[in-house]
Specification:
single chain; alpha+beta; CBS-domain; three-stranded mixed beta sheet; two-stranded antiparallel sheet
Length: 144
């Protein structure tokens, strides 16, 4: 069975977050792109961190409550994100997914961000790759 690669299912049209970006702008990017997290990069697209909805929710809640001014992504990003290579097999990535693992993975080639891959994209590809008849078979009342 030919296994598609991460590069076959990754999104490469989403603009990553740059260091120093206001958290409200990060939230806007997450919402506009319908993703739960985005990589944070420097000017050469090297991945420096990752920011998720959960990071933003907590920080904005605290910031708004204490009226501390507008936080920036550098204050909340996770600084050691798990990245994947574009030539990694979708099946291999799926086998390594587990509870608590990220929902979005930065895809890095030669040290530079080239896209992201989501668990949703992996799930869709695995379903598309399914064997045989893709229609579920339901037992009728006559088949007892």
């Amino acid at each position: 069975m030919h296994s598609p690669r991460v590069s076959d299912v990754m999104w490469n049209h989403i603009e990553p977050i740059r260091c120093g970006t206001a958290l409200t702008d990060v939230v806007r990017a997450l919402l506009d792109n319908h993703v739960t997290g985005l990589p944070v990069v420097d000017g050469q697209r090297r991945v420096l961190g990752f920011v998720s909805e959960q990071d933003c929710i907590h920080t904005l809640l605290v910031s708004n409550y204490h009226c501390e001014g507008e936080p920036v992504v550098d204050d909340v990003m996770f600084r050691q994100p798990i990245t994947v290579a574009p030539d990694l097999s979708v099946v291999d990535l799926a086998q390594n997914l587990g509870a608590g693992k990220p929902k979005v993975y930065p895809v890095v080639d030669h040290g530079r961000l080239v896209g992201i891959v989501t668990r949703t994209a992996i799930l869709a590809e695995l379903a598309r790759m399914g064997c045989g008849d893709s229609q579920p078979r339901y037992a009728s009342a006559d088949e007892d």
